[in-house]
Amino acid sequence: MPKRKRNPNGAGSITRRKDGRYMGRAYVTTASGERVRKYVYGRTWEEAHEELVKLLSNERQGIPVPDRSWKVGEYLDYWLEHVVRVSKRPATYDLYETIVRLYLKPGLGKYALGRLGVATVQAFLNAQTAAGHSARKVQVMRTVLSSALTRAMREELVSRNVARLVEVPEAVPREPGEWSTSAVRRFLAEARSDMLYPAFVLIFYLGLRRGEALGLGWDDVDWDAGEIRVRWQLQRVNGRLQRRPVKSRAGRRVLPLLGVVRDALKEQADRQAEWCDAAGDAWDAGALVLSTRKGGWVEPRNFNRSFTRIRTKLGLREFRPHDARHTCASLLAELGVDPRTAMEILGHSRSAVTLEVYQRASAASRREAVRRVAEALGD
Protein backbone atom coordinates (compact mmCIF):
# COMPACT_ATOMS: atom_id res chain seq x y z
CA MET A 1 0.00 0.00 0.00
CA PRO A 2 1.59 3.28 -1.06
CA LYS A 3 2.43 5.73 1.67
CA ARG A 4 0.44 8.98 1.85
CA LYS A 5 2.44 11.92 0.59
CA ARG A 6 3.50 14.36 3.25
CA ASN A 7 2.64 17.99 2.75
CA PRO A 8 5.68 19.95 1.59
CA ASN A 9 7.41 22.18 4.10
CA GLY A 10 5.50 25.37 4.65
CA ALA A 11 2.18 23.98 3.37
CA GLY A 12 0.74 23.44 6.83
CA SER A 13 -1.50 20.60 7.90
CA ILE A 14 -5.12 19.93 8.93
CA THR A 15 -6.29 17.52 11.60
CA ARG A 16 -9.61 16.70 13.21
CA ARG A 17 -10.06 17.55 16.88
CA LYS A 18 -11.89 15.48 19.45
CA ASP A 19 -14.81 17.93 19.39
CA GLY A 20 -15.32 17.26 15.68
CA ARG A 21 -13.94 20.58 14.44
CA TYR A 22 -10.99 20.78 12.07
CA MET A 23 -7.76 22.60 12.92
CA GLY A 24 -5.21 23.88 10.44
CA ARG A 25 -1.73 24.90 11.47
CA ALA A 26 1.30 26.39 9.78
CA TYR A 27 4.44 28.33 10.64
CA VAL A 28 4.23 32.01 9.80
CA THR A 29 6.16 35.20 10.50
CA THR A 30 5.00 37.67 13.14
CA ALA A 31 5.26 41.46 13.00
CA SER A 32 8.42 41.25 15.14
CA GLY A 33 10.07 38.79 12.73
CA GLU A 34 9.65 35.62 14.79
CA ARG A 35 8.50 32.31 13.33
CA VAL A 36 5.51 30.91 15.23
CA ARG A 37 2.93 28.21 14.68
CA LYS A 38 -0.47 29.72 13.92
CA TYR A 39 -3.77 27.86 14.18
CA VAL A 40 -7.02 28.26 12.24
CA TYR A 41 -10.29 26.41 12.67
CA GLY A 42 -13.38 25.30 10.77
CA ARG A 43 -16.48 23.20 11.26
CA THR A 44 -15.53 21.17 8.19
CA TRP A 45 -12.26 20.22 6.53
CA GLU A 46 -13.08 22.59 3.67
CA GLU A 47 -13.58 25.55 6.03
CA ALA A 48 -10.33 24.88 7.84
CA HIS A 49 -8.53 24.49 4.51
CA GLU A 50 -9.92 27.83 3.27
CA GLU A 51 -8.67 29.59 6.41
CA LEU A 52 -5.28 27.88 6.10
CA VAL A 53 -4.97 28.98 2.48
CA LYS A 54 -5.66 32.60 3.50
CA LEU A 55 -3.05 32.36 6.25
CA LEU A 56 -0.38 30.98 3.92
CA SER A 57 -1.31 33.44 1.17
CA ASN A 58 -0.61 36.35 3.53
CA GLU A 59 2.67 34.69 4.48
CA ARG A 60 3.77 34.45 0.85
CA GLN A 61 2.82 38.11 0.31
CA GLY A 62 4.96 39.13 3.26
CA ILE A 63 2.01 40.14 5.45
CA PRO A 64 2.96 39.20 9.02
CA VAL A 65 0.56 38.10 11.74
CA PRO A 66 0.21 40.25 14.87
CA ASP A 67 2.34 39.38 17.89
CA ARG A 68 -0.77 39.54 20.08
CA SER A 69 -4.51 39.47 19.70
CA TRP A 70 -5.82 43.01 20.17
CA LYS A 71 -9.36 43.99 20.95
CA VAL A 72 -10.41 47.22 19.24
CA GLY A 73 -10.87 48.94 22.61
CA GLU A 74 -7.41 47.89 23.82
CA TYR A 75 -5.78 49.11 20.66
CA LEU A 76 -7.61 52.47 20.78
CA ASP A 77 -6.30 53.02 24.33
CA TYR A 78 -2.77 52.17 23.20
CA TRP A 79 -3.07 54.41 20.14
CA LEU A 80 -4.31 57.39 22.15
CA GLU A 81 -1.56 57.13 24.75
CA HIS A 82 1.46 56.22 22.62
CA VAL A 83 0.66 57.80 19.25
CA VAL A 84 -1.88 60.62 19.51
CA ARG A 85 -0.70 62.09 22.81
CA VAL A 86 2.92 62.40 21.62
CA SER A 87 2.27 63.49 18.04
CA LYS A 88 -0.87 65.64 18.05
CA ARG A 89 -1.82 68.93 19.61
CA PRO A 90 -3.53 68.74 23.05
CA ALA A 91 -6.82 69.97 21.63
CA THR A 92 -6.73 67.21 19.00
CA TYR A 93 -5.96 64.62 21.66
CA ASP A 94 -8.91 65.84 23.72
CA LEU A 95 -11.24 65.49 20.74
CA TYR A 96 -9.98 62.00 19.83
CA GLU A 97 -10.11 60.81 23.44
CA THR A 98 -13.71 62.01 23.80
CA ILE A 99 -14.80 60.25 20.60
CA VAL A 100 -13.06 57.03 21.63
CA ARG A 101 -14.41 57.06 25.19
CA LEU A 102 -18.00 58.01 24.40
CA TYR A 103 -18.60 56.22 21.11
CA LEU A 104 -15.93 53.94 19.64
CA LYS A 105 -15.09 51.84 22.69
CA PRO A 106 -18.71 51.28 23.79
CA GLY A 107 -19.75 50.39 20.24
CA LEU A 108 -16.74 48.55 18.81
CA GLY A 109 -14.34 47.93 21.68
CA LYS A 110 -15.24 44.25 22.21
CA TYR A 111 -14.39 43.17 18.65
CA ALA A 112 -11.09 41.57 17.68
CA LEU A 113 -8.99 44.16 15.87
CA GLY A 114 -7.87 41.76 13.15
CA ARG A 115 -11.44 40.62 12.46
CA LEU A 116 -13.15 44.01 12.42
CA GLY A 117 -15.20 44.05 9.24
CA VAL A 118 -16.82 46.65 7.02
CA ALA A 119 -20.32 45.44 7.88
CA THR A 120 -19.66 45.81 11.63
CA VAL A 121 -18.36 49.37 11.30
CA GLN A 122 -21.16 50.30 8.90
CA ALA A 123 -23.80 49.00 11.32
CA PHE A 124 -22.17 50.94 14.17
CA LEU A 125 -22.16 54.24 12.26
CA ASN A 126 -25.72 53.68 11.02
CA ALA A 127 -26.79 53.21 14.64
CA GLN A 128 -25.11 56.49 15.61
CA THR A 129 -27.03 58.30 12.86
CA ALA A 130 -30.28 56.64 13.96
CA ALA A 131 -29.57 57.75 17.53
CA GLY A 132 -29.79 61.36 16.38
CA HIS A 133 -26.14 62.32 16.10
CA SER A 134 -25.38 64.88 13.41
CA ALA A 135 -23.80 63.86 10.12
CA ARG A 136 -20.73 65.87 11.08
CA LYS A 137 -20.29 64.00 14.37
CA VAL A 138 -20.67 60.62 12.63
CA GLN A 139 -18.02 61.73 10.14
CA VAL A 140 -15.69 62.59 13.02
CA MET A 141 -16.24 59.12 14.51
CA ARG A 142 -15.23 57.52 11.23
CA THR A 143 -12.23 59.85 10.89
CA VAL A 144 -10.92 58.98 14.35
CA LEU A 145 -11.42 55.24 13.80
CA SER A 146 -9.79 55.48 10.37
CA SER A 147 -6.78 57.25 11.84
CA ALA A 148 -6.34 54.49 14.43
CA LEU A 149 -6.70 51.73 11.83
CA THR A 150 -4.19 53.43 9.55
CA ARG A 151 -1.69 53.24 12.38
CA ALA A 152 -2.63 49.59 12.96
CA MET A 153 -1.86 48.92 9.28
CA ARG A 154 1.57 50.52 9.65
CA GLU A 155 2.20 48.28 12.63
CA GLU A 156 1.04 45.35 10.46
CA LEU A 157 -1.78 44.44 12.84
CA VAL A 158 -4.49 44.66 10.18
CA SER A 159 -4.29 44.26 6.42
CA ARG A 160 -6.81 46.96 5.48
CA ASN A 161 -8.55 50.01 6.89
CA VAL A 162 -12.22 49.07 6.96
CA ALA A 163 -13.24 52.55 8.14
CA ARG A 164 -12.33 53.87 4.69
CA LEU A 165 -14.77 51.47 3.05
CA VAL A 166 -17.95 52.50 4.88
CA GLU A 167 -20.49 55.13 3.86
CA VAL A 168 -21.58 57.97 6.13
CA PRO A 169 -24.14 60.74 5.63
CA GLU A 170 -22.89 63.85 3.93
CA ALA A 171 -22.64 66.77 6.32
CA VAL A 172 -24.26 69.97 5.11
CA PRO A 173 -21.76 72.73 5.86
CA ARG A 174 -23.06 75.62 7.93
CA GLU A 175 -23.31 78.80 5.95
CA PRO A 176 -21.09 81.33 7.73
CA GLY A 177 -22.77 84.48 8.93
CA GLU A 178 -21.85 87.78 7.37
CA TRP A 179 -22.48 91.33 8.47
CA SER A 180 -22.64 94.45 6.37
CA THR A 181 -20.06 97.17 6.95
CA SER A 182 -22.72 99.28 8.69
CA ALA A 183 -23.48 96.41 11.11
CA VAL A 184 -19.76 96.06 11.89
CA ARG A 185 -19.48 99.78 12.53
CA ARG A 186 -22.48 99.69 14.89
CA PHE A 187 -21.04 96.74 16.77
CA LEU A 188 -17.60 98.31 17.22
CA ALA A 189 -19.11 101.62 18.28
CA GLU A 190 -21.15 99.88 20.98
CA ALA A 191 -18.11 97.80 22.05
CA ARG A 192 -15.91 100.89 22.38
CA SER A 193 -16.02 100.85 26.18
CA ASP A 194 -15.69 97.09 26.54
CA MET A 195 -12.38 95.77 27.89
CA LEU A 196 -12.25 93.35 24.92
CA TYR A 197 -12.69 96.09 22.33
CA PRO A 198 -9.12 95.62 20.96
CA ALA A 199 -9.88 91.93 20.31
CA PHE A 200 -13.03 92.84 18.37
CA VAL A 201 -11.02 95.28 16.27
CA LEU A 202 -8.41 92.59 15.54
CA ILE A 203 -10.92 90.01 14.34
CA PHE A 204 -12.87 92.40 12.12
CA TYR A 205 -10.03 94.49 10.67
CA LEU A 206 -7.31 91.84 10.38
CA GLY A 207 -9.33 88.64 10.37
CA LEU A 208 -7.60 87.12 13.41
CA ARG A 209 -9.08 84.04 15.00
CA ARG A 210 -10.37 84.37 18.54
CA GLY A 211 -7.45 82.40 19.99
CA GLU A 212 -4.94 84.45 17.97
CA ALA A 213 -6.37 87.73 19.23
CA LEU A 214 -6.39 86.56 22.86
CA GLY A 215 -2.89 85.08 22.53
CA LEU A 216 -1.27 88.24 21.13
CA GLY A 217 1.61 89.45 23.29
CA TRP A 218 3.08 92.93 23.53
CA ASP A 219 6.33 91.58 22.11
CA ASP A 220 4.35 90.65 18.97
CA VAL A 221 3.54 94.33 18.38
CA ASP A 222 6.27 96.25 16.57
CA TRP A 223 5.35 99.91 16.92
CA ASP A 224 8.33 101.20 14.91
CA ALA A 225 7.83 98.88 11.94
CA GLY A 226 4.07 99.22 12.17
CA GLU A 227 3.51 95.46 12.23
CA ILE A 228 1.81 92.75 14.26
CA ARG A 229 3.31 89.25 14.32
CA VAL A 230 0.71 86.51 14.70
CA ARG A 231 2.51 83.58 16.33
CA TRP A 232 0.45 82.42 19.30
CA GLN A 233 -3.06 81.34 20.21
CA LEU A 234 -4.82 81.01 23.53
CA GLN A 235 -6.85 77.83 24.09
CA ARG A 236 -8.46 75.95 26.92
CA VAL A 237 -6.98 72.43 26.83
CA ASN A 238 -7.23 69.73 29.49
CA GLY A 239 -9.21 72.11 31.67
CA ARG A 240 -6.65 74.93 31.70
CA LEU A 241 -5.70 77.88 29.54
CA GLN A 242 -2.63 77.33 27.39
CA ARG A 243 -0.78 79.73 25.11
CA ARG A 244 0.53 77.66 22.23
CA PRO A 245 2.03 78.35 18.80
CA VAL A 246 -0.48 78.69 15.96
CA LYS A 247 -1.13 75.33 14.39
CA SER A 248 0.25 75.85 10.89
CA ARG A 249 3.06 77.64 9.11
CA ALA A 250 0.49 79.70 7.21
CA GLY A 251 -0.93 80.82 10.53
CA ARG A 252 2.37 82.52 11.39
CA ARG A 253 2.06 85.81 9.61
CA VAL A 254 2.97 89.51 9.81
CA LEU A 255 0.16 92.02 9.41
CA PRO A 256 0.20 95.82 9.12
CA LEU A 257 -0.60 97.85 12.21
CA LEU A 258 -3.47 99.85 10.75
CA GLY A 259 -4.43 103.21 12.21
CA VAL A 260 -7.58 102.01 13.98
CA VAL A 261 -5.78 98.91 15.26
CA ARG A 262 -2.82 101.01 16.45
CA ASP A 263 -5.19 103.37 18.28
CA ALA A 264 -7.02 100.47 19.96
CA LEU A 265 -3.76 98.90 21.12
CA LYS A 266 -2.36 102.24 22.37
CA GLU A 267 -5.48 102.76 24.44
CA GLN A 268 -5.20 99.20 25.72
CA ALA A 269 -1.59 99.81 26.81
CA ASP A 270 -2.69 102.91 28.74
CA ARG A 271 -5.59 100.99 30.28
CA GLN A 272 -3.32 98.15 31.38
CA ALA A 273 -0.91 100.64 32.96
CA GLU A 274 -3.80 101.91 35.12
CA TRP A 275 -4.83 98.35 36.00
CA CYS A 276 -1.25 97.49 36.92
CA ASP A 277 -1.01 100.46 39.29
CA ALA A 278 -4.30 99.54 40.89
CA ALA A 279 -3.42 95.83 41.26
CA GLY A 280 0.05 96.45 42.69
CA ASP A 281 1.79 93.20 43.60
CA ALA A 282 -1.23 91.22 42.41
CA TRP A 283 -0.52 92.21 38.79
CA ASP A 284 0.50 89.26 36.56
CA ALA A 285 3.80 90.08 34.87
CA GLY A 286 2.94 87.75 31.99
CA ALA A 287 0.04 89.89 30.83
CA LEU A 288 -0.82 89.70 27.15
CA VAL A 289 -2.36 92.47 25.04
CA LEU A 290 -5.82 91.29 26.12
CA SER A 291 -5.96 90.69 29.84
CA THR A 292 -8.12 90.82 32.94
CA ARG A 293 -7.86 93.73 35.36
CA LYS A 294 -5.11 91.88 37.22
CA GLY A 295 -3.13 90.88 34.13
CA GLY A 296 -4.51 87.37 33.81
CA TRP A 297 -5.31 85.70 30.52
CA VAL A 298 -8.82 86.15 29.13
CA GLU A 299 -11.06 83.11 29.17
CA PRO A 300 -12.20 82.43 25.54
CA ARG A 301 -15.75 81.78 26.71
CA ASN A 302 -15.86 85.27 28.23
CA PHE A 303 -14.91 86.66 24.84
CA ASN A 304 -17.93 84.86 23.34
CA ARG A 305 -20.21 86.10 26.12
CA SER A 306 -19.17 89.73 25.59
CA PHE A 307 -19.58 89.41 21.85
CA THR A 308 -23.06 87.89 22.16
CA ARG A 309 -24.16 90.43 24.76
CA ILE A 310 -23.27 93.39 22.51
CA ARG A 311 -24.79 91.76 19.42
CA THR A 312 -28.04 91.03 21.27
CA LYS A 313 -28.25 94.54 22.69
CA LEU A 314 -28.03 96.01 19.20
CA GLY A 315 -30.55 93.53 17.77
CA LEU A 316 -28.09 92.31 15.14
CA ARG A 317 -28.79 88.94 13.57
CA GLU A 318 -27.15 85.70 14.72
CA PHE A 319 -23.42 85.86 14.20
CA ARG A 320 -20.54 83.83 15.69
CA PRO A 321 -17.25 85.54 16.56
CA HIS A 322 -15.51 83.29 14.04
CA ASP A 323 -17.81 84.64 11.32
CA ALA A 324 -15.93 87.94 11.62
CA ARG A 325 -13.16 86.25 9.59
CA HIS A 326 -15.65 85.53 6.82
CA THR A 327 -16.84 89.12 6.89
CA CYS A 328 -13.22 90.29 6.62
CA ALA A 329 -12.59 87.86 3.75
CA SER A 330 -15.73 88.97 1.92
CA LEU A 331 -14.69 92.62 2.23
CA LEU A 332 -11.26 91.75 0.82
CA ALA A 333 -12.95 90.03 -2.12
CA GLU A 334 -15.32 92.92 -2.82
CA LEU A 335 -12.40 95.36 -2.66
CA GLY A 336 -10.61 93.36 -5.36
CA VAL A 337 -7.77 92.02 -3.20
CA ASP A 338 -6.23 89.02 -4.97
CA PRO A 339 -6.88 85.61 -3.32
CA ARG A 340 -3.21 84.93 -2.61
CA THR A 341 -2.83 88.12 -0.58
CA ALA A 342 -6.10 87.45 1.24
CA MET A 343 -4.90 83.92 2.02
CA GLU A 344 -1.76 85.32 3.67
CA ILE A 345 -3.71 87.94 5.63
CA LEU A 346 -6.19 85.40 6.97
CA GLY A 347 -3.60 82.70 7.62
CA HIS A 348 -5.35 79.99 5.60
CA SER A 349 -3.15 76.94 5.08
CA ARG A 350 -5.08 75.92 1.95
CA SER A 351 -5.98 78.24 -0.90
CA ALA A 352 -9.24 76.33 -1.40
CA VAL A 353 -10.56 77.79 1.87
CA THR A 354 -9.90 81.33 0.70
CA LEU A 355 -11.32 80.68 -2.77
CA GLU A 356 -14.51 79.25 -1.28
CA VAL A 357 -15.12 82.57 0.48
CA TYR A 358 -14.22 84.52 -2.64
CA GLN A 359 -16.63 82.48 -4.76
CA ARG A 360 -19.54 83.05 -2.36
CA ALA A 361 -21.31 86.17 -3.55
CA SER A 362 -22.63 88.57 -0.94
CA ALA A 363 -26.30 89.55 -0.79
CA ALA A 364 -25.43 92.99 -2.15
CA SER A 365 -23.53 91.41 -5.05
CA ARG A 366 -26.49 89.18 -5.88
CA ARG A 367 -28.90 92.13 -5.84
CA GLU A 368 -26.59 94.11 -8.12
CA ALA A 369 -26.27 91.18 -10.53
CA VAL A 370 -30.06 90.71 -10.72
CA ARG A 371 -30.55 94.47 -11.15
CA ARG A 372 -28.23 94.43 -14.16
CA VAL A 373 -30.14 91.50 -15.68
CA ALA A 374 -33.38 93.41 -15.22
CA GLU A 375 -31.88 96.48 -16.90
CA ALA A 376 -30.64 94.37 -19.81
CA LEU A 377 -34.14 92.95 -20.30
CA GLY A 378 -35.66 96.41 -20.25
CA ASP A 379 -37.49 96.13 -16.93
TrEMBL record:
<dbReference type="InterPro" id="IPR010998">
    <property type="entry name" value="Integrase_recombinase_N"/>
</dbReference>
<keyword id="KW-0229">DNA integration</keyword>
<feature type="domain" description="Tyr recombinase">
    <location>
        <begin position="174"/>
        <end position="371"/>
    </location>
</feature>
<dbReference type="InterPro" id="IPR004107">
    <property type="entry name" value="Integrase_SAM-like_N"/>
</dbReference>
<dbReference type="InterPro" id="IPR011010">
    <property type="entry name" value="DNA_brk_join_enz"/>
</dbReference>
<dbReference type="GO" id="GO:0003677">
    <property type="term" value="F:DNA binding"/>
</dbReference>
<dbReference type="InterPro" id="IPR050090">
    <property type="entry name" value="Tyrosine_recombinase_XerCD"/>
</dbReference>
<dbReference type="GO" id="GO:0015074">
    <property type="term" value="P:DNA integration"/>
</dbReference>
<keyword id="KW-0233">DNA recombination</keyword>
<dbReference type="Pfam" id="PF14659">
    <property type="entry name" value="Phage_int_SAM_3"/>
</dbReference>
<dbReference type="InterPro" id="IPR002104">
    <property type="entry name" value="Integrase_catalytic"/>
</dbReference>
<dbReference type="InterPro" id="IPR044068">
    <property type="entry name" value="CB"/>
</dbReference>
<keyword id="KW-0238">DNA-binding</keyword>
<feature type="domain" description="Core-binding (CB)">
    <location>
        <begin position="70"/>
        <end position="153"/>
    </location>
</feature>
<dbReference type="InterPro" id="IPR013762">
    <property type="entry name" value="Integrase-like_cat_sf"/>
</dbReference>
<dbReference type="Pfam" id="PF00589">
    <property type="entry name" value="Phage_integrase"/>
</dbReference>
<dbReference type="GO" id="GO:0006310">
    <property type="term" value="P:DNA recombination"/>
</dbReference>
<protein>
    <recommendedName>
        <fullName>Integrase</fullName>
    </recommendedName>
</protein>
